[in-house]
């Protein structure tokens, strides 16, 4: 079996809760609590979950913006927390990110040229003409023209700013881009443009994406595989078609039924989740979803369900599918 | 049986005066809301939907100028008599916004905020009675443990709970009209579904009319009796929800519907509307959508289409639909 581009093994990230002057640790927020998955070269994996599910923390760990509490992240088989010097720089170049709000991720004091040129100047040796040509070609790839080079972020619309952020992410020829809610701050018509752009770039540049979102409706347009997380744990994972055609976990089903789709208003049976996710400081025992699950049984409250495989790719963690 | 009109907006035009010139945010907008009806204003950023909402709530920022038009609420012209007897119990309009965190003062407990509103508007002075009323409404918005919420500061509650608190405050003084400006945009899809459900239930229970402002046609379909599509400060199309969804006339409405990710159909690629909104300071002479429209004709560049009732209860502003050719 070939090595995946990125392998996450039993990743845990606990944030200590400190009180008082001395910072006594009174507990931990278990943001990510044992998550494993792979991303292959050229593959798009989506992580779907509500606020507090730990999806952004997973991204931060991969970007080395957070230290892992436990577990491993392997890039081409190498443990990324042990990378040093040139190897570490290479890793950082290979993994780029696009965040939700482009106006927060673009420096308001730099024009588009400077924003795009900064990482390129540091990482590639180009003459001034080559740099200019390269930056122009980047803008071209994201559907903007040269006239944008001397604009500042405040002169851009949300969609244009997000295109600049994407141009910056592809500027160092990465292998994987982490897309953290890349369209949720945008209007629907612009959202569609950006999703299409991302799909085109992926094919052109043979990129992998890790798409993080709470909106199941957008993931099918772009992803190969979907992972549904809740309170720091994986609930269900599988190929996009598997999850979309036959969502098995009650949580996945409720996420689907929450999507406002104008054409299924009356025909679908809506499952509305009551309440909000419990606190990740003291996650419920047993299955973490049992406090909100419409099909909760006695066993769910006591014991965490094991992985149940429906196909070589489709896995679900739910007692409903355990044969008695 | 026709229901009584609670709100009539007639030929409303609003400009914003800014350093570089004048932004024509709303142009010639007319619509009505019936008693107990939910009307959705749908449009992208820059469509003027929020400005319309603010104008009706009387909360326009200082640099906004109402050029012309009337806002008639329960038979009285609002713009000319705004200051007189504004808080008789029949005439209350409340507005809720996108970000509940920004709406609630972080220095006060939820209970203090809601009590203050009740005391001022309902002229109740007995603290016990105020508290009772406040708790009644915190319960009505299905908050678990209303007592605890009453004694909490905003930062102790989650986004979904805060939005419920804001709705409780808005409804506690029996408004006749509730303006909800993107109240679910910041929430996760599961919480969004909860809040929409709550608003529908409260509408039935309290008989309040709602003007719901959103950029998401899917959300509008969930909650709206009628949908008004705005673009660049003008109304492009208006119809009952089902009619608009299954028989959209305007190319812009059709485009908007096509770019919503659908759950029941599979596309390999999402459709999008190319281009972006025109410069609001210099709107084009003809139809403002002409540069992005796939069906643009010669006439669209030069002549502005009028909003006409092309089908029964279905208004559209587009040269593709002309009354004489019907």
Topology:
The complex is a heterodimer of chains A (324) and B (326).
Chain A: E1 6-19, E2 24-39, E3 44-48, H1 55-62, E4 70-75, E5 78-79, H2 85-94, E6 95-98, H3 102-105, H4 112-123, H5 128-141, H6 158-170, E7 176-180, H7 188-205, E8 208-213, H8 216-219, E9 225-230, E10 233-239, H9 240-245, H10 250-257, H11 298-302, E11 308-309, E12 315-316
Helix pairs in contact in A: 6-7
Chain B: E1 5-18, E2 21-34, E3 38-42, H1 49-57, E4 64-73, E5 76-77, E6 93-96, H2 100-103, H3 110-122, H4 127-140, H5 146-150, H6 159-171, E7 177-181, H7 189-206, E8 209-214, H8 217-223, E9 226-231, E10 234-240, H9 241-246, H10 251-258, H11 298-302, E11 308-311, E12 314-316
Helix pairs in contact in B: 3-4, 4-6
Task: Walk me through this protein's architecture.
The complex is a heterodimer of chains A (324) and B (326). In chain A, strand 1 (6-19) and strand 2 form a beta hairpin. The mean pLDDT of chain A is 89. Chain A is built from eleven helices and twelve strands. In chain A, the strands form two sheets. In chain A, strands 6-7-8-3-9-10-12-11 form an eight-stranded mixed beta sheet, with helices on both faces. A four-stranded antiparallel beta sheet of chain A has the order 2-1-4-5. Chain A has a single domain, classed as Rossmann fold (3-Layer(aba) Sandwich), CATH 3.40.50. In chain A, 31% of the residues lie in helices and 23% in strands. The two termini of chain A are 34 Å apart. In chain A, helix 6 (158-170) runs parallel beside helix 7 (188-205). Chain A is an alpha/beta fold and 324 residues long. The longest helix of chain A has 18 residues, at 188-205. By secondary structure, chain B is an alpha/beta fold. Chain B folds into two domains: 5-92 and 185-271, P-loop containing nucleotide triphosphate hydrolases (Rossmann fold, 3-Layer(aba) Sandwich), CATH 3.40.50.300; 103-174, no CATH class. Helix content of chain B is 31%, strand content 25%. Chain B is built from eleven helices and twelve strands. Chain B has an eight-stranded mixed beta sheet, with helices on both faces. In chain B, helix 3 (110-122) crosses helix 4 and helix 4 crosses helix 6. Chain B is globular. Chain B starts with a strand and ends in a 10-residue tail after the last strand. The mean pLDDT of chain B is 88. The chains are: A alpha/beta (324), B alpha/beta (326).
């Amino acid at each position: 079996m070939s090595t995946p581009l990125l392998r996450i093994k039993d990743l845990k990230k606990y944030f200590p809760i400190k009180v008082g002057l001395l910072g006594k640790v009174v507990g931990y927020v278990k943001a990510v609590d044992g998550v494993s998955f792979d991303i292959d070269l050229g593959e798009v994996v989506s992580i779907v979950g509500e606020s507090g599910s730990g999806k952004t923390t997973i991204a931060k760990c991969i970007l080395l913006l957070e230290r892992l509490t436990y577990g491993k992240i392997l890039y081409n088989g190498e443990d990324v927390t042990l990378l040093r010097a040139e190897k570490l720089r290479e890793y950082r170049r290979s993994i780029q990110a696009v965040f939700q709000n482009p106006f927060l991720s673009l420096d308001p004091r730099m024009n588009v040229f400077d924003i795009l040129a900064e990482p390129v100047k540091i990482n590639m040796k180009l003459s001034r003409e080559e740099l200019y040509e390269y930056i122009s070609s980047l803008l071209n790839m994201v559907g903007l023209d040269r006239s944008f080079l001397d604009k500042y972020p405040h002169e851009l619309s949300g969609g244009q700013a997000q295109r600049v952020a994407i141009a910056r992410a592809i500027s160092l020829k990465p292998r994987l881009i982490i897309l953290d809610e890349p369209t949720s701050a945008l209007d629907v018509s612009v959202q569609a443009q950006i999703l299409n752009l991302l799909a085109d770039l992926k094919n052109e540049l043979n990129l992998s994406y890790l798409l993080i979102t709470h909106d199941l409706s957008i993931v099918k347009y772009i992803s190969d595989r979907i992972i549904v997380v809740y309170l720091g744990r994986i609930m269900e994972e599988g190929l996009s078609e598997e999850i979309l055609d036959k969502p098995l976990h009650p949580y996945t089903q409720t996420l689907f039924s929450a999507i406002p789709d104008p054409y299924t208003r009356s025909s679908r049976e809506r499952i509305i989740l009551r309440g909000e996710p419990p606190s990740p400081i003291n996650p419920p025992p047993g299955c973490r979803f049992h406090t909100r699950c419409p099909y909760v049984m006695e066993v769910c409250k006591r014991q965490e369900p094991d992985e149940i495989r429906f196909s070589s790719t489709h896995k679900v963690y739910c007692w409903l599918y355990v044969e008695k | 049986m026709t229901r009584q009109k609670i709100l009539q907006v007639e030929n409303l035009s609003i400009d914003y005066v800014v350093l570089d010139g004048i932004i024509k945010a709303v142009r010639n907008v007319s619509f009505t809301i019936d008693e107990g009806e939910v009307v959705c204003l749908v449009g992208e950023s820059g469509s003027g939907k929020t400005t319309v909402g603010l104008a009706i709530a009387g909360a326009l920022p200082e640099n906004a100028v109402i050029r012309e038009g009337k806002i008639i609420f329960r038979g009285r012209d609002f713009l000319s008599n705004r200051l007189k007897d504004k808080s008789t119990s029949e005439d209350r309009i409340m507005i809720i916004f996108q970000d509940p965190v920004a709406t609630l003062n972080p220095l006060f407990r939820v209970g203090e905020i809601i009590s203050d509103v009740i005391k001022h508007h309902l002229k109740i002075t007995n603290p016990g009675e105020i508290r009772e009323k406040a708790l009644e409404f915190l319960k009505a918005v299905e908050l678990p443990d209303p007592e605890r919420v009453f004694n909490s500061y905003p930062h102790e509650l989650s986004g979904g709970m805060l939005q419920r608190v804001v709705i409780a405050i808005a409804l506690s003084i029996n408004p006749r009209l509730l303006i909800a400006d993107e109240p679910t945009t910041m929430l996760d899809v599961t919480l969004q579904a909860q809040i929409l459900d709550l608003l529908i239930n409260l509408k039935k229970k309290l008989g309040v009319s709602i003007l719901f402002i959103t950029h998401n046609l899917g959300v509008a379909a969930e909650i709206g009796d009628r949908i008004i599509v705005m673009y660049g400060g003008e109304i492009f199309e208006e119809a009952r929800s089902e009619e608009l969804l299954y028989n959209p006339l305007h190319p812009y409405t059709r485009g908007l519907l096509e770019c919503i990710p659908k759950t029941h159909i599979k596309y390999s690629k999402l459709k999008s509307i190319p281009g972006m909104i025109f410069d609001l300071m210099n709107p084009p002479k003809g139809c403002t959508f002409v540069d992005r429209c796939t069906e643009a004709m010669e006439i669209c560049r030069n002549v502005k289409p009028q909003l006409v009732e092309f089908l029964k209860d279905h208004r559209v502003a587009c040269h593709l639909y002309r009354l004489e050719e019907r």
